[in-house]
Amino acid sequence: MTRKSLYFSGDGTIDVRDESLPDPKPHEVVVETLFSGISAGTESLIFHGNVPRDMSVDPSLKAYSGEFRYPLKYGYSLVGTIVETGAEVPKTFRDTRVFAFHPHESHFTAAMNDLIQLPEALSSENAVFLANMETAVNFLMDGQPLIGECVGVFGQGVVGLLTTALLNKFPLDPVITTDFSPLRRQLSTDFGADYTLDPSGSNIVDEIRSVLRTTGSTSDFDLVYELSGSPEALNDAIAVAGYEGRIVIGSWYGNKPAHLDLGGSFHRSKIKLVSSQVSHIQSGFSGRWTKTRRLAVALDMLNDIRPSTLITHRFPVNRAQEAFNLLASAAQDIVQVVITYE
User: Fold this and answer.
1) Buried (b) or exposed (e) across 74-89, using 16+ Cβ within 10 A?
2) Domain 132-285 adopts which CATH fold?
3) Cα 302 versus chain centre, distance
4) CA distance linking residue 154 with residue 175, whole number of Å
5) What is the pLDDT of residues 252-300, one digit of tens each?
6) Does the chain have fewer CB atoms within 10 Å around its N or its C terminus?
7) What's the pTM value of the predicted model, to 2 decimals?
């Protein structure tokens, strides 16, 4: 059997290769891919080669080993169906739909314990958002929003929108989001934001403070999420965080430097910067929470929020270059791009 595998070159080109698929080991299965979702932030950095070459790809996932070296297989949001089982795996697992943290390719082999079996009620289109939903759940665990707090979310890409949707389940007052895209701002309102602002207009810091004053609560945020992928936005987040405010940084900037303005009120205001990364669970939760439990919550939230409406573009695997070129264009009508395998 052969498969189509997507390789990043690091210079803005994608190579889709036909490769031999190894036979499954006795404890493995063969998965035929239905969809794989592109992470616009992380994968755009990898697409352009804007990643540190001296760091590992992701030591928490078995599908990745070693450092960032091109050509590179990457991707971590894949939904497929088990089509073949190894000798030690019951044949009853055939036709089971699964999610995998795995690079973009049409077929692959994996051990059953590296796959997540999907509930029948969850559509494949909704399931492709599992990695981003788990990240959004982790953002809330790291930010720990409290009743009545004022919360800001910079960036309404997929993970920003999912974070907004989860925040909507808390009694917060208000939730304010920012994004350059009119479409993403509309979706942000649909997902529960009280106000959504365009950071490209007037001074976004003054605009946020003006909105906050109209709510009658405070002129600064208690909690801010920086999810835009723009290092410059982190300074805006610092500027609108109140005394002892928390800023959760979910963006990964790759090789892009972040020049922070820490000479103003940052020090005296005792603002806390929190780096949030989904590979680990915050130590304060580790006594009762596991990744399995967090994934179960994320699956429940997918069924509740049903984010498949965020899929704006679909490309067959042979046109993967077009998909990444589209993301590189920064068009404002892009939310979630998926690769299909038929």
Assistant:
1) bbbbbbbbbebbbeeb
2) Rossmann fold (3.40.50)
3) 13
4) 11
5) 888 788 888 888 788 889 999 999 999 989 888 989 999 999 999 999 9
6) C
7) 0.94
